[in-house]
Amino acid sequence: MLTVWLIVAGCDGDAAVATPAGAVDRASDGDTGELPGRDMSTGGATGARADGANGSDGPGPGGSIDGPPSGSPEGEPSATAGGRQMGADDGPPQAAADEDASDPMLDAGSQPSDPVESTEPASADGGATVMCPESALESALEPGLRMASLMHDGLEREFVIYVPQGYDNARPVPLVLNFHGATSNAEQQRTLFSKMDETADEKGFIVVYPQGIGRSWNAGACCGDAASEDVDDVGFALAIVEFMAERACIDRARVYATGFSNGGRMSYRLACQAADVFAAIAPVAGTKSFPDLRNSPGCEPSRPLSLIDFMGTDDSRISAQPGQVAEWVSLNGCTDAEPAEVYRSGDHFCEAYTECEAGTSVTYCVVDGGGHCWPGSTPCPLGSTSSASDLSANELMWELFERSSL
User: Fold this and answer.
1) Is residue 33 within 8 Å of residue 40, measured between CB atoms?
2) Contact of 95 with 68, CB cutoff 8 Å
3) Phi/psi of residue 176, nearest 5 degrees
4) Is residue 163 a contact partner of residue 206, using CB atoms and an 8 Å limit?
5) CATH number for the domain running over 5-66+92-402
6) Tens digits of per-residue pLDDT, 289-305?
7) What's the pLDDT tens digit per position in 163-188?
8) By the 8 A CB rule, do 118 and 5 touch?
9) pLDDT of residue 177
10) CA–CA distance, 258 with 392 (Å, rounded to integer)
């Protein structure tokens, strides 16, 4: 079968995943960012406002969880297979249908319930006691893939939830928000770029892939419809955290953010404005673009916050890693005269400032010859990247997350 590939560039130079010609969905006139098995023409991608809505629903827990995205192309592996390199004739992996796609939706109008104490060690020091809501113990949330939505700021916002195998709703687990790049979408970030489901299974955390308005995030000065319309994506991220904390036993001291390109920029904005919620961030091929001219004051995190930043030396879209790392070194009050090398594989390496306030650190990882890619994951639509055995963004960011907590 002959497959023709198209690559669509985003406003900040983000490249959408290569998509078979004929499968491109309105790529030239306001992409809808559809996820397999669910129409995302409203809410998740275009952000259609609910009837009569004109403002702030706030980050409350109300919302719904559906079954998993359906529709795995013939011959494709399941959504949790992970790690398979695509051949020349392969199309983009789609999420496989769960055996039970008819899970009942959780009560959209539920209110926070009384907390139940869990004594499972969950924080980085292994000794914290976590309070989980009774609703999490009674939740229908089970291991596997689910679609979900909530109302925020008059918009129906959608996201994909992956609950790891072995999840126990009585045991507190970390939560990772993983943001796609501009012109991409949540499902592509999950199955093509980060492939983080497999890491979630191995390390035991829940990962959520949010869907941006117009396939973009308002990271400040960038990008797309989300930035031009000044969409409240920080509020959306906080609403997801509240939503998940009501439906799963989330360790609120261990909530993290990562993302690719425009999604990496979004994780930087969360560090600037929501450091009281996120314990650490891991931007991949994305620079800090907050604040812009409309926002004042500037980036003033409420506390020092650890980060690990990934960049390729041949990334033609992003080239500001030294400056943004230096800024965060200053924000964290690091006193190291020089960074120390903490990882090396051939010409790929990571260096870190570790003498920082509140036990935080600032780490940057460089992929020699790497393009605009997610290190350790293929395919890469713009250049080449490291193999997972050489430098894996998923593995290295989890090492930081595992030792970082509020």
Assistant:
1) yes
2) yes
3) -120, 125
4) yes
5) 3.40.50.1820
6) 665 434 445 788 999 99
7) 999 998 889 999 999 999 999 999 99
8) no
9) 98
10) 14
